[in-house]
Amino acid sequence: MNSFRILASLLIVLSPPALAAPLAYVPNEKSGTISVIDTATDTVLRQIAAGKRPRGIAADPAGARLYVTDAGSNALLVIDTASGAVVRSIALGKSPEGVSVSADGRYAAVAVEESNSVSLIDTASGQVAADIPVRGKNPEHAVFSPDGRWLLVSAEEAEQVDVIDVAARRQSGSIAVGLRPRGMGFSPDGQRAYVACELANAVYVVDMATLAAVARIPAGKNANGIVVHPSGRQVYVSNGIDASVMVVDTASNMVVATIVVGKRPWNMALTPDGAKLYVANGRSNSVSVIDTASAAKHAEVLVGELPWGVVIR
């Protein structure tokens, strides 16, 4: 009996701790904060101070650092996720917006509206490695392809997505899409990109081998946010005026479900397993939580004022 108790105690000590649920980070543009949501309970754990006007948000692959654009100070803030402290502030051009981080964590890319450019940041040094002009006016998002070869750049005043060759650090071409492209996302294999075009009320499917749009999917009014499921089988698009999220089947390029969410849904993020979708609702000051298996909303989480987007790590 004593041997059994000793063995049981050893198993308890040596067993690995339960893995914590991912955290969702939501920049609140008007509040100047980031709301931290526990995705296990869908409750706000804390608020992190994040400059004067936080907008775009991304995280490094390990989830140790957040990269947040602050339009109030025209800077990229690097925030330690454990302490919530700003550990670095990188000066940028006027009105920075969307930011993404390459899969290897080496670079962050920031769309800078008023300079019509993308700033490429070396994350190790915190230096601007290049400031790359683009043709589209008022760029909003700059998104890395999964292999880090390309950056796709959308702009509020454009009918194309600009393509940046990351190694060459220059624009190498453009892809014709609908008016006012906004959110973008890649299939897991990087072969397709999906672009929400706000004034076209549509999602354009881009073949990355030919850098050309191969399909147009009708969406709701003011389509803007895009996220692709880890399986690659579904794409989610938020519709700002309709206050809804549509689910697109990528095999057929058809809308298979529409889910009502908060007012002016904008940018979104999925949990790593693809089970839950978090939608920032700019006019409801909330995040809608969608169960992807049932394609139904199951929670509404109050955050700060004017939430811009979500990143989950």
What's a quick, concise take on this entry?
With 313 residues, the protein is mainly beta. It is 4% helix and 56% strand.
Feature tags:
single chain, 313 residues, mainly beta, four-stranded antiparallel beta sheet, 1 helix, 4% helix, 56% strand, globular, disordered N terminus
Task: Tell me what the structure shows.
It is a single chain. The protein has 313 residues and is mostly beta strands. It is globular. The chain is built from one helix and 28 strands. The chain has one helix spanning 2-14, and strands at 23-28, 33-38, 43-49, 54-59, 65-70, 75-80, 86-91, 96-101, 107-112, 117-122, 127-133, 137-144, 150-157, 160-165, 170-176, 181-186, 192-197, 202-207, 212-218, 223-228, 234-239, 244-249, 254-260, 265-270, 276-281, 286-291, 296-302, 311-312. Helix content is 4%, strand content 56%. The relative contact order is 0.12. A four-stranded antiparallel β-sheet has the order 3-2-1-28, with no helix packed on it. A hairpin with a 5-residue loop joins strand 20 and strand 21 (234-239). The protein starts with a helix and ends with a strand.
- Strands, count: 28
Which structural class do you get from the secondary structure elements? mainly beta
Mean pLDDT: 94
Shape: globular
Name the quaternary structure: single chain
- Number of distinct helices: 1
